[in-house]
Design a protein that fits this description.
- With 355 residues, this protein is of the alpha/beta class.
- The protein is built from 13 helices and 12 strands.
- It has 2 domains: 189 residues, Rossmann fold (3-Layer(aba) Sandwich), CATH 3.40.50.1980; 153 residues, Rossmann fold (3-Layer(aba) Sandwich), CATH 3.40.50.1980.
- The strands form 4 sheets. The protein has a 4-stranded mixed β-sheet with strand order 10-9-11-12. Strands 1-6-5 form a 3-stranded mixed β-sheet, with no helix packed on it.
- The longest helix has 21 residues.
- The termini are far apart.
Length: 355
């Protein structure tokens, strides 16, 4: 497992996470260096709120560990780095993160550019040695669903628990992403930041309520969020039932698309299923794995042009990166509070123009 300062890694998330990690990961057993703020942990967490009592038993689907006192050094180990985003939203700086924290480009201003990282490859073992070398007194694995990144946390929980107490989400059985609101509440209790966690959730609700109030034209319309990954991985329907993109579209005011049921088990859009991507609004992203030529070929096909959203002009095509270098595709499909707000700021004007 290769440890490095946070660097850009091309990746996919949601249903196409496996393909991304297979393309971007690398392997080594190198150990991380301490971050500049490590020391005794000073500066890594906000002040305690005094609501959580320690020792605190951390229950998980795999067992339990006991957090004897408030932690200072936190290793965030979820492959897609959603746990790191949640920690940063609480003002907490982990001492270790998956390198995919770099993917969206929108977390730098929150301190993500100075976190020690490990590179994760699809199906690789959890980097136990790297985690131990970061000297954590809490390992955070909230947001790790069953088999995320080709790895089952259950297979590694016991080894991680020998290093430090481990906090997970209560239910990891989902094949899609867990609601970040549930995960951040778990973190808030473990870190004695329950009020801060509630504040992040409340702020998110206020923000999107304001978006809906400003754009009532979104209400009740259906929307599809799809990404084209080029010839290798094809077109993927990512606003599947109970997914992060579906939740994001709902926060903007859109209704659930009945067609999404067709992709509950498999997100791949075949020619036979292309008509099922139709909606009142079609949002189509192009990943870095797809060339502009491939995208033109896809959107130039008569099957595509005949979609109602396309023929009516309610079609928004998104590039791999925004003008400021961010990644809307990653932000929406990873489903965190910082990325969702950032994505809305860029996407809402485009959707409003299309309507």
């Amino acid at each position: 497992m290769n440890l490095t300062r946070r660097r850009g890694v091309t990746g996919l998330i949601g249903t196409a996470l496996a393909a991304a990690l297979a393309l971007t990961g690398c392997s080594s057993t190198a150990s991380p260096q301490r971050t500049s703020t490590s020391g005794d942990g000073a500066g890594l967490l906000p002040a305690a709120e005094g609501r959580t009592s320690y020792p605190l038993t951390l229950e998980s689907p795999f067992g339990r560990t006991v957090l004897k006192k408030r932690p200072e050094r936190i290793a965030a180990v979820v492959p897609n780095a959603i746990d790191t985003e949640l920690l940063l939203s609480l003002g907490v700086k982990p001492v270790l993160s998956s390198s995919l924290v770099s993917e969206g480009g929108y977390l730098d201003e929150h301190g993500a550019d100075d976190i020690e990282t490990y590179e994760f490859a699809m199906g690789e073992e959890v980097p136990v040695e790297a985690i131990a070398a970061s000297h954590p007194d809490l390992i955070v694995a909230v947001g790790w669903t069953d088999g995320l990144g080709g790895v089952k946390l259950a297979d590694h929980y016991d080894r991680l628990a020998t290093i430090a107490p481990v906090v997970t989400s209560p239910d990891v059985s989902s094949q899609l992403l867990l609601p970040w609101q549930d995960s951040i509440r778990v973190l808030g209790e473990a870190l004695d930041l329950a009020d801060a966690a509630k504040g992040v959730v409340d702020d998110n609700e206020r923000y999107f309520a304001a978006v809906r109030g400003k754009h009532p034209e979104f209400e009740g319309l259906t929307a599809t969020w799809a990404i084209y990954y080029g010839a290798a991985n094809g077109l993927q329907y990512l606003s599947r039932p109970d997914s992060a993109p579906e939740t994001f579209l709902g926060e903007l005011g859109f209704a659930k698309n009945p067609n999404a049921r067709e992709f509950k088990r498999d997100a791949t859009v075949s020619d036979e299923l292309l008509s099922k991507t139709d909606a009142d609004v079609l949002l189509l992203g192009r990943s870095a794995a797809a060339s502009e030529t491939e995208m033109r070929e896809l959107t130039g096909r008569s099957l595509f042009k005949n979609l109602g959203a396309v023929s009516s002009g309610r079609f928004v095509q998104l590039p791999p990166k925004t003008d400021d270098g961010g990644d809307l595709l990653w932000a929406i499909t990873s489903g965190g509070p910082i990325g969702n707000k950032w994505a809305a700021e860029h996407l809402v004007p485009l959707v409003a123009d299309a309507l």
